[in-house]
Amino acid sequence: MRRPNRKKTLSLVKELDAFPKVPESYVETSASGGTVSLIAFTTMALLTVMEFSVYQDTWMKYEYEVDKDFSSKLRINIDITVAMKCQYVGADVLDLAETMVASADGLVYEPATFDLSPQQREWQRMLQLIQSRLQEEHSLQDVIFKSAFKSTSTALPPREDDSSLSPDACRIHGHLYVNKVAGNFHITVGKAIPHPRGHAHLAALVNHDSYNFSHRIDHLSFGELVPGIINPLDGTEKIAVDHNQMFQYFITVVPTKLHTHKISAETHQFSVTERERIINHAAGSHGVSGIFMKYDLSSLMVTVTEEHMPFWQFVVRLCGIVGGIFSTTGMLHGVGKFIVEIICCRFRLGSYKPVRSVPFEDGHTDNHLPLLENNTH
């Protein structure tokens, strides 16, 4: 009883075969079919290689949500060189809550030379070139995110020459922790002193002719310091044309969570608008000479995640390529063969000459064409 049921099951399964086998003796090969097959295999190989390169590549996914963290502190990383001696300038931060952050907590005043060495000038030129390309092609930012911690440091290289020139500038570098509210980081004449209604700078002791707020921003970032990330103001250099000149930077800071295959960090991106003007009270241009960076925080947080094509999707796309090319080339070959046969048939029919009618003895004629022509005599 088991064998008949088994044979019946096998026969039923054979009837469901969607891929019937054709004996090789019934298969006819042709030169056109071989040519189409060669083209199909070559196309499949090229597309497979291209698909594998896409599978190896990654892309950045951007997600936006409301930033609910208002209690933590915001870190500001600073590396600015001002063309004045350190005893003449002071830097501090004042936020909207009228909270003053003393510069002695994290900033270092270091005497330096404002003019760059040839190697440092070349570094600055390359950095400015990258900045200009980033403004034109925003997709390059994804490449920078992927190269974080893998590329070389973006910091200004040390001087390679032992210059005997006396320091004529002040390098202010370090970091500060401020409240997550809008604030104003500024560098102006005189050291900052606390005041019940805010703060003030001791500028009366500095000669007005020594004012020179030409500056170079080697690095400015917010949040966790991530090597390899290029920020919008890195490499910026401004030359003052007057002693009473104000440089203003209006910065919008966006909290950013960066998740790549190499790192996972909480940093901040920012956009900036620049403005500079000469202080002239007689002409109605009021203010204080110095460098002012007014920053404000966005209420949205961006999550940047590096994603990769899953393996199952790669297999499905690969099967689609192979099956699609097989089906398409088969259809094109069939259509082409059909068109060629029609053209050849018309050409052959046009080569036949009409056969004259054969008269019979009773006066009738035979207008039927012979089925076969015998050219043998």
Automatic annotation (TrEMBL):
Membrane topology: Multi-pass membrane protein
InterPro entries: Erv, Erv_C, Erv_N
Signal peptide as annotated in the record: none
Domain of life: Eukaryota
Any one of the GO CC terms: endoplasmic reticulum-Golgi intermediate compartment membrane
Keywords: Endoplasmic reticulum, ER-Golgi transport, Golgi apparatus, Membrane, Transmembrane, Transmembrane helix, Transport
Example of a GO biological process term: retrograde vesicle-mediated transport, Golgi to endoplasmic reticulum
Cellular localisation: Endoplasmic reticulum membrane; Endoplasmic reticulum-Golgi intermediate compartment membrane; Golgi apparatus membrane
Claim: Transport is one of the keywords in the record: yes
Domain Endoplasmic reticulum vesicle transporter N-terminal: 13-98
UniProt domain Endoplasmic reticulum vesicle transporter C-terminal: residue ranges: 168-331
Presence of the UniProt keyword Hydrolase in the record: no
Record function comment: Plays a role in transport between endoplasmic reticulum and Golgi.
The family this protein is said to belong to: Belongs to the ERGIC family.
Name the UniProt record assigns to this protein: Endoplasmic reticulum-Golgi intermediate compartment protein
Organism: Nannospalax galili (Northern Israeli blind subterranean mole rat)
Gene that specifies this protein: Ergic2
